[in-house]
Amino acid sequence: MSQLNGAYYGPSIPPPQKTYHRPGRGGGCFDCCCGCIFSLIFKLVLTVIIIVGIVVFLVWLIVRPNVVKVHVTDATLTQFNYTGNTLNYDMVLNITVRNPNKRLGIYYDRIEARAMFQGARFHSEFPGPFYQGHKTTNLLNPVFKGQQVLSLNDDQTSEFNKEKSTGVYEIDVKLYLRVRFKLGVFKTKTLKPKVTCDLHIPLNSGNGASPPATFETTKCDWDR
Asked: Which residues are in the Late embryogenesis abundant protein LEA-2 subgroup domain (predicted)?
């Protein structure tokens, strides 16, 4: 029997390769649909925001809202005495409220006129509510009269005595408002601005000892 070598059998046959099939991921279409929906929602929200912004800007261009102008045109102080931690006072103010807007009306639903000395409130008045039309002026005449217990410290008492010697008192009047603005048939929600009037009011005791100083018209600050 003859010896057989490797050449007799020819080249070696490689082993068969196994074919692997990677399982497909389920929900491909679902993920795609979700992405499309979220993208559509985002675009819609962005479009709405842009449209609202444009409308607000156009309304502002048309209306051009201006701040209400408040002035104290006259103030009469005939009594302002502080003795025994009690303040006795008698003060009358003329306050003009001007709506400079051409298209906006204003509802003053509530007004509190608060008189303060050295940061302490000593009286509040509540003028009646009213509606203010376009480019009109209304007059408020709050009267502050009575007595109030005030606990002033040494510095505040010293300041009172200093003002007493000059005959001119620094009295703050603050208006706390609840207002609504009207544009055509539309009305805004209730807003609560505050108006601050820093007044220097001369005392007019009426005793004829010396002519009283003249009160100067004071512009008040409208805080939104």
From this structure: 95-197
Can you tell me the distance from the alpha carbon of 55 to that of 60, in angstroms, rounded to the nearest whole number?
9
Structure tokens at 50: 């842009």
| Contact criterion met (CB below 8 Å) for 152 and 145 | no
In one letter, which amino acid is 81?
Answer: N
Length in residues, the chain: 224
- How does pLDDT run across 152-161, given as a tens digit for each residue? 999 999 999 9
Q: Which two tokens stand for residue 161?
A: 């005595």
- On the CB side of 43, CA atoms within 13 Å amount to 6
Kind of pairing between the strands at 221-223 and 86-99? unpaired
| Residue 139 near residue 130, CB atoms below 8 Å | no
Q: Is 51 helix (H, G, I), strand (E, B) or coil?
A: helix
CA diameter of the chain: 158
DSSP 8-state code for residue 184: T
Closest CA to 113 of 122, 105, 104: 122
Closest CA to 55 of 65, 63, 43: 63
The better pLDDT of the pair 185, 200 is held by 200
The burial of 170, by beta-carbon neighbours within 10 Å (0-12 exposed, 13-18 middle, 19 or more buried), is given as middle
Give the per-residue pLDDT at 49: 86
**Per-residue model confidence (pLDDT) at position 222:** 92
SS3 content of the chain, % helix, strand, coil (to 5): 25, 45, 35
Task: Tell me the pLDDT tens digit for each residue of 44-99.
Answer: 888 888 887 665 544 554 445 789 999 999 999 999 999 989 999 999 999 999 99
